[in-house]
Specification:
- The chain is of the alpha+beta class.
- The protein has 2 domains: about 10-45 and about 175-280, TATA-Binding Protein, CATH 3.30.310; about 45-90 and about 100-175.
- Helices cover about 25% and strands about 30% of the residues.
- It is built from 7 helices and 14 strands.
- It has helices at about 10-20, 25, 60-65, 140-155, 195-205, 255-270, 275; strands spanning about 40-50, 55, 80-85, 105-110, 120-125, 130-140, 160-165, 175-180, 190, 210-215, 225-230, 235-240, 245-255, 280.
- A hairpin with a 4-residue loop joins strand 12 (about 235-240) and strand 13.
Length: about 280
């Protein structure tokens, strides 16, 4: 489904917050160059939950209806799977086949919201008999707000799928945001991860007034620095994974405001200590 030109469901406040997560806007005095070129934060995937309260879904009926209109004989951009019974523990495992939740309908939909590769999303929807839904694969707030409504509307049109069939879908709740950005301009350069890990602990740890709860680097187990970033005054945290290539992943939480704080922290640290942190990659 292409929702690019549909204005319903847009959230200007969220979009403005996302646009603000760019180091050139957060710190205009620092300019990129031939070595450092920090990209804006980009949302890769968002996990969302929503529900039809006090509603029962007939998953078998939904599956039978959708199965006729998707797959090889119908819309190739959609895929539907349903596991009506708990699989036997003695049943032989099929190579390449992933286990599904028992009594859960899995619906995969291709969504376009904008031009280019970043505008195309493969959204996975888990539907449960109690009217609850879990979505994964969104990368725009517009798609989150609109597609969740479209899916409930499509189910409402299937006779006997919902009891009652007049319940309005609850506002979607963002559970987790997976995002990424890049620090270095190209593969000619790389980050000295051991030094960066030390700086994170010395300069940004909570013990010296920062937000870093922990920072570990064990290349024999994982190639990235694993940083736990404290969320405000709570005991919650998000995770940064920092790689030698200058690629950084931020995930584990649901509020972009704190993603912006974590983004700014690591970008500022790299700029301030660039002479210690950036070396030429002789393997490039």
């Amino acid at each position: 489904m292409d929702i690019t030109k549909v204005d319903i469901g847009r959230d200007p406040e969220f979009d403005e917050l996302l646009k603000s997560i760019h180091f050139s806007m957060l710190c205009p005095d620092n300019q990129d160059d031939d070595i450092i070129e920090i990209t804006p934060l980009r949302i890769v995937s968002v996990v969302v939950c929503t529900e039809l309260k006090d509603t029962v879904l007939d998953l078998k009926r939904i599956f039978q209806h959708l199965d006729k209109t998707t797959g090889e004989n119908g819309d190739s951009s959609e895929e539907i799977k349903y596991e009506p019974e708990r699989p036997s523990k003695k049943a032989p495992k099929v190579k390449g086949k992933k286990n599904m939740f028992y009594n859960c309908l899995l619906w995969k939909v291709q969504v376009r919201d904008g031009a280019g590769d970043h505008g195309l999303m493969n959204v996975s929807i888990k539907c449960f008999p109690n009217g609850k839904f879990q979505y994964a694969g969104f990368n725009t707030i517009h798609a989150i707000n609109l597609v969740t409504r479209i899916i409930s509307s499509r189910l409402r049109q299937i006779e006997g799928a919902m009891t009652p069939n007049i319940t309005k879908i609850e506002s979607p709740s963002i559970i987790q945001i997976n995002s990424c950005f890049y620090i270095l301009k190209n593969k000619k350069w790389q980050l000295k991860q051991i030094t960066l890990n030390q700086l994170l602990l010395e300069k940004e740890h909570v013990s010296v007034g920062g937000n870093v709860l922990s920072s570990t680097f064990m290349p024999e187990k994982y190639p990235g620095i694993n940083v736990k970033f404290k969320i405000g005054s709570s005991d919650k945290k998000l995770t940064l994974l920092i790689f030698a290539t200058g690629s950084v992943l931020i995930n584990g939480y649901n509020d972009l405001y704190y993603y912006r704080e974590a983004y700014y922290m690591i970008c500022k640290l790299v700029h301030e200590h660039r002479s210690e942190l950036i070396i030429e990659n002789f393997l490039s």
